[in-house]
Design brief:
Length: about 260
């Protein structure tokens, strides 16, 4: 049997809902949230995938499974519109603080074992159009940029940034400034200053509130238009997570015995 995949959705959970070490501004809710994987879900699924190799190790090795990096708080929709936590900005600038997931230190499973884990993980998961939802989730971010209220608040954010000595048309441009060298290990003082100003300007202008309201309107329209398709996706997601939980529990049982 061909192993099913969840194209784009696991990656989308981590790309669009980037993990943050701390979050005075909590993650916010959107209508698609009831159908998408959370960052915590993605970590749980990876832990279940690791279960085959880890069950064969001793208890000490099994304890070194893939987990969220120490201190990382898994907040839904964090950094969907760029950085929003002033503490992260002060310490790291636009750099993502640390690895999103601490990788397993156990040896990789052999092919047969890995295949068995995938079969168990996807067993009984109903067919659903995962790629469609992933694409709509990304499209929702892009479409919200052209909403009139978002255009207005983005201009206000840009004016605020200029008062702090930074000239960017929107938060994405600030994040993607090549001067930050985001592939490097550490941020510069200038980058951290820009990131702090970014967060403060988002707060004073209400940027996140306005942008999320625009996305909510768009997503609600699609939830109302495609109830059957989204219900199928939720059922598939829920079954996948139940399978992951059972795989992880089975591994823990084997370690104890």
């Amino acid at each position: 049997m061909a192993v099913k995949r969840w194209p784009g959705v696991v990656l989308g959970a981590l790309a669009l809902m980037v993990l943050s070490r701390s979050a005075p501004t909590p993650g916010f809710a959107l209508p698609f949230d009831g159908y998408l994987l959370t960052p915590s879900d993605a970590v749980a699924i990876q832990a279940a995938r690791d279960s085959c190799a880890e069950a064969a190790q001793d208890a000490e090795a099994a304890g070194r499974r893939s987990t969220p990096a120490h201190g990382v708080r898994l907040e839904r929709n964090m950094r969907r519109y760029g950085i929003t936590d002033v503490g992260d900005a002060e310490r790291h600038g636009y750099h993502v603080p640390g690895p999103l997931v601490r990788p397993s230190s156990t040896p990789a499973a052999d092919h047969a074992c890995a295949h068995e884990a995938e079969e168990r993980l996807w067993g009984g998961v109903p067919e659903a159009d995962f790629a469609w939802l992933s694409a709509l989730n990304a499209q929702s971010v892009v479409r919200s940029e052209s909403d009139p209220a978002v255009v207005t608040v983005t201009r206000a954010w840009s004016r605020c940034m200029r008062t702090h000595g930074f000239t960017y048309p929107d938060p994405l441009a600030a994040l993607q400034d090549p001067a930050w060298r985001l592939d490097s290990a550490a941020s510069s003082p200038r980058e951290r200053a820009a990131a702090v100003s970014d967060v403060r300007c988002k707060r004073t202008t209400g940027y996140v509130t306005v942008r999320s309201a625009a996305e909510t309107r768009f997503q609600k329209e699609l939830v109302d238009r495609f109830p059957a398709k989204l219900t199928a996706l939720k059922q598939a997601r829920d079954r996948l997570l139940r399978n992951a939980e059972q795989l992880t529990a089975r591994r823990s049982e084997k370690v104890r015995t």
